[in-house]
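Memo to structure team: turn this sequence into structure tokens by end of day. - J.P.
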Amino acid sequence: MTRRRALLALAFASVAAVFAAGLVLARSSGDSNEAAPSSAMRQSTGAEPTRADGTAAPDLAGEDPVTGKHVDLAEFRGKPVVINVWASWCPGCNEEAVALREFAAAHPEAVVLGLDFQDTVEGAKAFYRKWGWSHPSIYDVAGTKTAAIGLVGLPTTYFLDERHKVMAQVIGATDRAGFERGLELAIDS
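Reply from structure team:
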């Protein structure tokens, strides 16, 4: 009887170990420099800008994950701002990265400001190198800044007028034309 219980316990432990190993492998697949997304976040697929209600953007400030410098949204008062919420592990963020870089280069009248959500510094630096980004970002590893702005999915881009009121947004990856239309909605409001 004791031997039978020992064999059953060993069999149960073996099955549990295989199951646990499978979970670990499933979670660790992908880039080891990438942070895991919050379970509350969902990947969005929308690409068209929509009008927003014109509420004031929250105070956003923090360290740039690439340069280590302090970045503050208030520094850009008087200019329209395009806030792109991104993460290196986000497929849609990677999808729209070139379009955002080209948009930023074509629109010096507007400030492009990244908000790096639940990422790693290493992941952020690699993302900037990969896509040739040069605009500032604010590091938001805890998700408090993205919660303040009302993030519902990644990527999300907010278009602020010169008074920093949120006039338009795109939830999901977009293309350069989507960034252009979002900026037009912010400027023309």
